[in-house]
């Protein structure tokens, strides 16, 4: 069942970026290149959700009592909540009792001694995700693999550039790379389950402090059942020596993935964090309800980039990921900065609003987004900029691309509180339509409660024009190359905001996710 | 050599014939001009040859060095060596001119089974070509045709032509909207690409372009076909007398 897919080579940095887009279209035969399934023996908790499952998840993660209490509290709340229905998305009712809330590769139970002992299928999965062998060993938990310095990081990276990777496979973090090197800088980068055990003070202090347990239906569900995710702590004044990265992958069928990410940038620190997501092709929809909390102290800065490529469902809208995610950054100190960049190409349904709370004076929040929907995909996504402090700044650049019969909604809130004097927001919201059966919607909410702040909102809607396509084709590009070029041009401002290697991956993704949308 | 035989073309959506038995031969290395009154089908011919949607070929043929153009996709025609300089070049926001050129060059090379140019090779080539056309580096960085003046757009078309090295170039009213200086620059660019093998088909309303790009043969087109073929003097005749006499001759 896994023989059809092709291994996608990571693009080379030194070659021109745009050529990669074009190559990607040609080299990726399949419409969804990560749609492979790995046939690994899994350890499942029974389907459905009740207190026992919550206890089991907590126990499997060897959590302390306080964590279990926290989860049970969330679960109790969740039972009294109702699923929100205000977003412009339609999907069949989710039976929350028909989902596995915990799945873990069996091979994780004992640490393998060498690569030979690692479940080869797990390795094959990493290879397909484009993670190089050295990282594969570490992620597979081979003892000692992370002790020796590794060269030639993720293929195609600029020389000397390193990325530390944490991989989350279904519910479990299967390994984190470069821990030692990071530890020397004082950076903590590990799975959240490990952080709960090893750094309980930090976790207790910050978990749920940005996205409270009771924030919303999915966040509350996540608080009860999150199984793993990543934890990052950057100590005061430290510039994280490498990019940090997490790969999330949902593999097992009927499994929900509920990861929880907590990043704390202490005073004057800096970190750039990348998040990539994939899932296999399935006929049935899968649920993904993650929570990401960012805490940014005085003069600190976090850049958080996401390339979300969950399985979008097939042309008829069968299967795919339901992506209900709560992401929020809290600029707690003065002059704190946060930048969200997201490229959303996957998922059947996306419900996601990475937000910035600009609490500290002179703090800054930026949101750059590309959301591509094709076929039957639906996306309701945007951001919230909550200006609380004085002289706070925010910038929103949203590029929505709709093809097939997809519906793409930008929903954003800009709120200037009374104390947020002299604050500014600039919002640019562009929609691009491909074909005549898709929709683009823009729903901006603007609240200004002081006299000295300024809010600007610009919105455009355009169509990919036949004249543009013909012009490109008359110069030798095929239809898909031409479309990829035009769409990448449309989304350029956002692509430029991504770290280099992600920008290229994203460009290829733009091309791939629009396959079959013309002609 | 471009050879068009008895080509009949109608609009795809309505029953309106535009090309009515067009025949034309442009041997390699020659420069031919086509003149004709508005609505005679000149632009339609250039679109049909390059493969634009919206037209239906009902009969006839068009070949480039023996290869059937009408069977090919637009990009295959380009790779086979056909180039159309547009009357109204299209703007593509956000796509750098350089990126566009490189994608186009390498797409064609791929289609022809040739090795793609590396970034360095391409950069060297584009700089040389741009310099010889007096196109400054700034224009290469800007998005394709966005905010370009009329003259810049046409020079950009000629730059694309220089980069893609086609066998057969069709220039669709390249002089329209240009002042005398801009027209001279464009003509110089075209002349620099004349190498004895490359052919040109220059569609124009005015003799003055032909002062700068000297044609070997001039065709007069009216009502969807060529009604008269002659030397450069034919263009002068049109300039002095208009089309009325010629049209009367045929009628």
Key structural traits:
heterodimer, A: 519 residues, alpha/beta, globular, B: 251 residues, Rossmann fold, six-stranded mixed sheet, 39% helix
Major β-sheet strand ordering of chain A: 4-3-7-9-12-14-17-20-22-24
CATH class of the domain at 73-166 in chain B: Alpha Beta
Give me the count of strands of chain B. 12
* Helix percent band of chain B: 25-40%
Q: Which range does the strand content of chain A fall in?
A: 25-35%
Distance between the ends of chain A: 30 Å
CATH architecture of the domain at 73-166 in chain B: 3-Layer(aba) Sandwich
Assembly state: heterodimer
Give the tally of β-strands of chain A.
24
Q: Helical element count of chain A?
A: 13
Structure description:
The complex is a heterodimer of chains A (519) and B (251). Chain A has 519 residues and is an alpha/beta fold. Chain A has helices at 17-27, 51-60, 65-79, 120-128, 133-139, 179-184, 192-198, 200-206, 217-225, 466-473, 479-490, 492-495, 500-513, and strands spanning 42-44, 103-105, 163-169, 172-176, 188-191, 230-234, 243-249, 260-265, 270-278, 285-288, 291-296, 301-308, 320-331, 337-344, 349-352, 355-358, 364-373, 378-381, 384-387, 393-402, 407-416, 424-433, 439-448, 454-463. Chain A has a domain at 45-143 and 160-322. Chain A is built from 13 helices and 24 strands. The longest helix of chain A has 15 residues, at 65-79. Among the domains of chain B are: 1-29 and 57-71, no CATH class; 73-166, 3-Layer(aba) Sandwich (Rossmann fold), CATH 3.40.50.300. Chain B contains 10 helices and 12 strands. Chain B has a 6-stranded mixed sheet, sandwiched between helices. Chain B has a 4-stranded antiparallel sheet with strand order 2-1-4-5. In chain B, a hairpin with a 5-residue loop joins strand 1 (2-11) and strand 2 (17-26). In chain B, helix 6 (150-164) runs parallel beside helix 7. Classes of the chains: A alpha/beta (519), B alpha/beta (251). The interface between A and B is medium-sized, with 30 and 38 residues.
């Amino acid at each position: 069942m896994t023989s059809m897919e092709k291994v996608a080579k990571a693009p080379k940095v030194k070659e021109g970026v745009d050529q990669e887009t074009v190559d990607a279209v040609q080299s990726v035969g399949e419409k969804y290149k990560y749609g492979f399934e790995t046939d690994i023996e899994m350890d499942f908790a029974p389907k459905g959700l009740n207190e026992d499952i919550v206890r089991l998840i907590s126990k499997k993660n060897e959590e302390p009592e306080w964590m279990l209490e926290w989860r049970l509290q969330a679960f109790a709340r969740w039972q009294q909540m109702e699923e929100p229905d205000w977003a412009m998305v339609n999907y069949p009712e989710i039976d929350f009792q028909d989902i596995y809330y915990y799945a873990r590769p069996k091979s994780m139970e004992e640490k393998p001694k060498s690569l030979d002992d690692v479940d080869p299928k797990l390795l094959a999965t990493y290879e397909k995700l484009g993670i190089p062998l050295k990282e594969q060993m570490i992620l597979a938990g081979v003892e000692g693999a992370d002790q020796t310095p590794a060269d030639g990081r993720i293929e195609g990276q600029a020389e000397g550039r390193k990325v530390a990777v944490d991989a989350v496979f279904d519910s479990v973090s299967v390994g984190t790379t470069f821990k030692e090197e990071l530890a020397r800088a004082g950076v903590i980068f590990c799975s959240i389950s490990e952080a709960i055990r090893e750094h309980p003070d930090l976790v207790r202090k910050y978990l749920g402090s940005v996205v409270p347990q009771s924030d919303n239906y999915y966040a509350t569900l996540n608080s009860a059942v999150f199984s793993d995710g990543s934890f990052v702590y950057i100590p005061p004044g430290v510039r994280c020596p490498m990019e940090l990265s997490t790969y999330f992958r949902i593999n097992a069928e009927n499994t929900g993935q509920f990861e929880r990410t907590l990043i704390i940038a202490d005073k004057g620190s800096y970190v750039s964090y990348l998040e990539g997501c994939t899932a296999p092709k399935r006929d049935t929809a899968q649920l993904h309800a993650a929570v990401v909390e960012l805490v940014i102290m005085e003069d600190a800065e976090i850049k958080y980039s996401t390339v979300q490529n969950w399985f979008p469902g097939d042309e008829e809208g069968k299967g795919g990921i339901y992506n209900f995610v709560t992401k929020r950054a809290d600029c707690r100190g003065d002059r704190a900065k946060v930048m969200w960049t997201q490229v959303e190409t996957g998922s059947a349904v996306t419900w996601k609003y990475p937000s910035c709370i600009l609490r500290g004076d002179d703090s800054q929040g930026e949101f750059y987004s590309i959301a591509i929907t094709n076929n039957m995909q639906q996306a309701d996504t945007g951001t919230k900029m909550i200006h609380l402090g004085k002289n706070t700044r925010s910038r929103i650049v949203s590029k929505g691309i709709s093809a097939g019969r997809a519906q793409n909604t930008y929903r954003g809130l800009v709120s200037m509180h009374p104390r947020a004097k002299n604050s500014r927001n600039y919002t640019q919201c562009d929609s691009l339509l491909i074909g005549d059966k898709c929709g683009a919607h823009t729903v901006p909410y603007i609240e200004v409660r002081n006299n000295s702040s300024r809010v600007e909102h610009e919105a455009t809607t355009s169509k990919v024009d036949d004249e543009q396509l013909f012009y490109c084709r008359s110069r030798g590009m095929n239809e898909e190359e031409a479309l990829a070029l035009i769409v990448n041009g449309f989304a350029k401002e956002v692509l430029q905001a991504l770290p280099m290697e992600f920008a290229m991956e994203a460009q290829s993704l733009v091309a791939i996710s629009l396959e079959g949308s013309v002609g | 050599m471009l050879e068009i035989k008895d080509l009949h073309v109608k609009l795809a959506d309505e029953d309106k014939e535009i090309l009515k038995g067009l025949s034309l031969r442009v041997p390699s290395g020659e420069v031919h001009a086509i003149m004709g009154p508005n609505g005679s089908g000149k632009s339609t011919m250039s679109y049909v040859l390059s493969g634009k949607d919206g037209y239906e070929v009902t009969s006839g043929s068009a070949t480039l060095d023996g290869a059937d153009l009408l069977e090919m996709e637009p990009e295959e025609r380009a790779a086979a060596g056909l180039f159309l300089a547009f009357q109204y070049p299209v703007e593509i926001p956000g796509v750098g001119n350089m990126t566009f050129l490189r994608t186009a060059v390498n797409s064609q090379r791929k289609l022809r089974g040739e090795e793609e140019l590396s970034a360095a090779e391409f950069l060297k080539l584009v700089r040389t070509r741009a310099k010889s056309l007096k196109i400054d580096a700034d224009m290469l960085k800007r998005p394709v045709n966005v905010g370009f003046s009329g003259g810049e757009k046409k020079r950009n078309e000629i730059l694309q032509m220089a980069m893609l090295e086609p066998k057969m170039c069709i220039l669709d009213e390249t002089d329209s909207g240009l002042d005398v200086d801009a027209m001279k620059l464009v003509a110089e660019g075209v002349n620099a690409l004349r190498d004895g093998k490359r052919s040109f088909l220059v569609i124009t309303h005015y003799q003055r372009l032909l002062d700068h790009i000297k044609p070997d043969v001039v065709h007069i087109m009216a009502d969807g076909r060529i009604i008269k073929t002659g030397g450069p003097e034919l263009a002068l005749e049109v300039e002095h007398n208009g089309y009325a006499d010629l049209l009367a001759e045929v009628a």
